[in-house]
Design a protein that fits this description.
The complex is a heterodimer.
Chain A (H helix, E strand, L loop, with lengths): L3 H9 L4 E16 L2 E10 L12 E2 L8 E5 L9 E4 L2 E9 L10 E5 H11 L2 H9 L11 E6 L5 H12 L6 H45 L1 H9 L4 H30 L11 H27 L10
Chain B lengths: L6 H8 L12 E10 L6 E11 L4 E5 L6 H8 L7 E6 L2 E5 L2 E2 L4 H8 E4 L11 H11 L4 H14 L15 H13 L5 E5 L7 H17 L3 E5 L11 E6 L2 E7 L3 H6 L2
Parallel strand pairs in B: 3-9, 3-10, 7-8, 8-9
Antiparallel strand pairs in B: 1-2, 1-4, 4-5, 5-6, 10-11
Helix pairs in contact in B: 4-5, 4-6, 5-6, 6-7
The chains are: A alpha+beta, B alpha/beta.
Chain lengths: 309, 263
């Protein structure tokens, strides 16, 4: 999308639009404190829509150049200096939970800086062409315009107007969330779901083997219980209790780990109470199924084996 | 001491007698036979074995390996179907012509029989009291009453001071006393013991036998023990000597039991 001012102004003049701001997006690798950082750099126009949301520390960008707002997930702290392209940026503010769909922490710089950064990071030959003013390329390029609507305005109406009259692709907030959840997040969810399923199957096999082994070690005790008159349901209950105890211990450790370390991983994981309950239910079922092997072995035990050394 | 076969006793013991409700014996096994397999693979584990055990008696089943003593104990303990014969336990005819007259053998064992094992077989994750109380609870008693009964029995068997101990912390003699308490939990009048002193030294074996005799006399119970321990032969009222599935001899002992019963 070329000509940030033209496009943004064109959008801002559409009925129902309160304000519009130009944005650029690029993924940049930088080095800081001896380690590689992969950042999702958003260029925005200060005072216009598209900037960082509420900060958890520091302030918003106040200067036109070389200031940056970074997400905590990047590991950057207030006052940290980071070289991007050919310029050094100072972190003046911090956000929380602002990551790209790929898990890269978001950083915000001014649109002018971002456009210069795009130029700095372009291949040398292209850069030379642009510097010469050739090739039809310009530094003044943007990736998107974000618009804030007046209250009471239907987003779909504005989006339709943009498509029809400006010949631009327009996506509402809901549409964008839908694309994100139905494509990127959904794919990731399916992938994680596959891994989770595999892990649950492996866990079921392991629990089954543990319960079976524990049952085999207790054959004499089971035979004794049967001999002194314990009904099968008592013995089954004991084995199922063991399996459930294993599941409960595993689930508690797993859930505690997840809740305590998930923020240290790049992708943001949202665990709703419903998800946790569903997982607990699945673990319960897995444990019940896994105890089947042990129960089968226990039911086959002849009480007579309790007698005789 | 040597156990010599006595023709007259063996003949009398092997003679089939029909159990009756008037019979005084708590255990009356009549012509019990048990075979495994058929045809060329048939093994006769028991051949028309008959024994009577009266209230207050402690008797032993003796014999070499494969003689049928454990098979007989299993039949009397209601865990093995006999091929033929009849069995009365505490006045109730439970097997007639090799067929069980009761469907629920588990309940039958719970009501009428207490078991004592060679290696005590206590449940390792329950303390002494709970091991004993478990049997009462299986019979339907509530937890408080079961524990009260367990404590009473542990005190009775002079092991009350270890009521909170786990089996692993008990000595062999203490563990066997807890096992005896467990066998008595439901007030059975028939106690079956499988090598109850085999894992104990002479002193502890003697203490356990004293306790079994005490239980037999004071609870008017019939105790049948399988044993190889010749140090305790004189502590039995009678010894049933089995060989190749047959009752080879019935030896009335001249010791405590023999004097008491006048045999």
């Amino acid at each position: 999308m070329g000509g940030r001012g033209d496009t943004r102004e064109a959008i801002a003049r559409i009925a129902g639009v309160e304000a519009a701001g130009s944005l650029t997006y690029q993924t940049v690798e930088a080095e800081h404190a001896g380690r590689k950082l992969r950042l999702y750099v958003i260029g925005f126009e200060p005072t216009r829509p598209g900037g960082p949301p509420d900060l958890v520390a520091g302030r918003h960008i106040a200067r036109s150049h070389y200031e940056m707002v970074a997400d905590q997930a990047s590991g950057l702290t207030l006052g940290a200096r980071l070289r991007l392209g050919r310029s050094d940026f100072t972190v003046v503010g911090l956000t929380r939970n602002q990551v790209a769909s790929g898990g890269d922490p978001a950083t915000f710089i001014t649109l002018l800086d971002a456009q210069k950064l795009q130029f700095d990071l372009a291949p040398p030959a292209a850069r030379v062409q642009i510097a010469r003013g050739g090739g039809g390329a310009s530094r003044d390029t943007i990736n998107a315009v974000v618009a804030r609507l007046q209250s009471g305005t239907a987003p779909d109406t504005v989006a339709e107007a943009v498509r029809r009259w400006k010949h631009l692709s327009a996506i509402t907030q809901d549409g964008q969330e839908s694309i994100l959840t139905q494509s990127l997040v959904d794919r990731a969810r399916r992938q994680i779901g596959l891994f989770t399923s595999l892990l649950l199957i492996v866990s079921a096999v392991i629990i089954a083997l543990i319960i079976y082994t524990m049952t085999m070690e207790k054959l004499k005790q089971i035979a004794t219980l049967k001999l002194i008159g314990a009904p099968d349901r008592t013995i089954i209950g004991m084995i199922v209790q063991q399996a459930l105890a294993l599941g409960l211990i595993g689930f508690t450790i797993g859930a505690t780990l997840i809740f305590n370390i998930k923020d240290y991983f790049p992708r943001r994981v949202v665990l709703e109470p419903d998800n946790v309950l569903a997982l607990a239910g699945i673990v319960l079922v897995v444990c019940l199924l896994s105890s089947g092997l042990g129960v089968r072995a226990a039911l086959k035990v002849d009480p007579a084996t309790a007698l005789g050394g | 001491m040597a156990v010599a076969p006595r023709e007259s006793d063996a003949t009398a013991a092997e003679k089939p007698r029909a159990p009756t409700q008037q019979s005084a014996p708590l255990v009356q096994a009549v012509a019990i036979s048990k075979h495994f397999g058929e045809g060329e693979t048939r093994v006769d584990a028991l051949r028309e074995v008959s024994i009577d055990v009266n209230p207050g008696e402690v008797v032993a089943l003796l014999g070499p390996s494969g003689s049928g003593k454990t098979t007989l104990l299993n039949v009397i303990g209601c865990i093995l179907d006999p091929s033929a014969g009849s069995l009365s336990l505490d006045g109730e005819l439970v097997i007639e012509n090799g067929r069980w007259l009761r469907g629920n053998l588990r309940q039958l064992r719970l009501e009428k029989i207490g078991f004592i094992f060679q290696f005590h077989n206590l449940i390792p994750f329950l303390d002494a009291t709970d091991n004993v109380a478990l049997v009462r609870q299986l019979a339907g008693a509530d937890a408080a009453a079961s524990r009260a009964r367990a404590i009473e029995l542990l005190d009775y068997l002079e092991v009350g001071h270890r009521r909170a101990s786990m089996p692993a912390k008990l000595s062999g003699g203490e563990a066997q006393r807890v096992a005896i308490a467990r066998a008595l939990a439901n007030r059975p009048r028939i106690i079956l013991a499988d090598e109850p002193t085999a894992a104990l030294d002479s002193k502890r074996a003697s203490i356990v036998m004293d306790l079994l005799r005490k239980v037999a006399l004071e609870q008017q119970a019939a105790i049948i023990a399988v044993t190889h321990d010749d140090k305790i032969f004189d502590r039995f009222d009678r010894i049933y000597n089995l060989r190749d599935g047959r009752l080879d001899a019935v030896e009335a002992m001249p010791g405590i039991g023999g004097r008491r019963t006048g045999l």
